[in-house]
Amino acid sequence: MVSFLVLWTIVLTAMFSSNRLVSDYVFLAIMVFLAITGLAEFYGLAAKRNLVCFERCGILGGVLLMVGTFLNLTGKLGTSGSPARVNDFETSFLILFVLGLCLRQFFARSNTEGIVAIATTLFGLMYVPWLLNFIQKINFFPGVDGHYYLLYFILITKFSDSGAYATGSLIGRHKMIPRISPGKTWEGFAGAVIFSTLASLIFVHFLGSKMAGMNWKHAIILGIILSVTAVVGDLIESLLKREAGVKDSGKFFPGIGGILDLLDSLLFNAPIMYLYLRHVLTRP
Questions:
Q1: pLDDT band for position 88 (50/70/90)?
Q2: Other CB atoms closer than 10 Å to residue 63's CB: what's the count?
Q3: φ, ψ for residue 237 (rounded to 5)?
Q4: Is the pLDDT of residue 252 over 60?
Q5: pTM of the full structure
Q6: What dihedral do alpha carbons 224, 264, 123, 177 form, nearest 10°?
Q7: pLDDT tens, 112-122?
Q8: SS3 per residue for the chain
Q9: Are 139 and 86 in contact (CB under 8 A)?
Q10: How far apart are CA 38 and CA 40, in angstroms?
Q11: How far apart are CA 85 and CA 211, in angstroms?
Q12: How far apart are the C-alpha atoms of 34 and 239, rounded to whole Å?
């Protein structure tokens, strides 16, 4: 928990800094760091399952994807930073990335598992940096102060995690999917929904005026949706770890585990928050 608080304190301090250089580039550096280490952990899990992949290509692609999206979002390439323009960049990049993986396989001297290598490398890119990119797209969303939406989405997600853990530890009796995560219970799931929804209502009550389109109805809807997808994201990472035969994705954070253990619930909540912001809260 201490490691989590330190990391996100740095992230949020950079986000709300009055110095644009700090707020932009420190934020980018942290996102790239999370992408690199998260991808390395994912490919490490794949290796434990004897799944071949092009790890260096995947990590390089992840860095280029994160930096390219940042440059588009902030207008450093002379672009407008509009959601459509950024999505076009990401689509084009993914097409070229798949093509690059196929070319990489052409020159592999001993790898006869091209389909596995390409699929595993691509899935790692989609699972970590591509999903992380939605955090950037929330932070730099045009026409609004995305910092508050990002702060909101991180806090609500982590309240879901805390609510699930606290409730499950105290009164958890009925297992959700024991073959994937023996510790997850339906009581913990209910606690996640309640905690995150209450946190959402409290946050919007005090800071809703800084969030375009936000009101108590949206707070309830997002509180429920984000809590559910946070649990699903946690279960997905548990599935990956269970198949790899490990308890934690890594040992980067004492008391938490690896980067993926830190990000699991955030990865799938980021696109949910972004899509809700784009198509509901800021819809013309």
A1: very high
A2: 15
A3: -70, -35
A4: yes
A5: 0.91
A6: -70
A7: 788 999 999 99
A8: CHHHHHHHHHHHHHHCCCCHHHHHHHHHHHHHHHHHHHHHHHHHHHHHCCCCCCHHHHHHHHHHHHHHHHHHHCCCCCCCCCHHHHHHHHHHHHHHHHHHHHHHHHCCCCCCCHHHHHHHHHHHHHHHHHHHHHHHHHHCCCCCCHHHHHHHHHHHHHHHHHHHHHHHHHHCCCECCCCCCCCCEHHHHHHHHHHHHHHHHHHHHHHHHHCCCCCHHHHHHHHHHHHHHHHHHHHHHHHHHHHHCCCCCCCCECCCECHHHHHHHHHHHHHHHHHHHHHHHCCC
A9: no
A10: 5
A11: 23
A12: 21
Residue 208 is which amino acid?
A: G
| Tokens describing residue 201 | 């209502």
Nearest to 138 by CA among 257, 284, 244, 282: 282
Helix-helix angle 259-276:216-244, to 10 degrees: 150
Instruction: Find the angle CA(187)-CA(232)-CA(120) to the nearest 5 degrees.
Output: 150
Tokens of 49: 């399952």
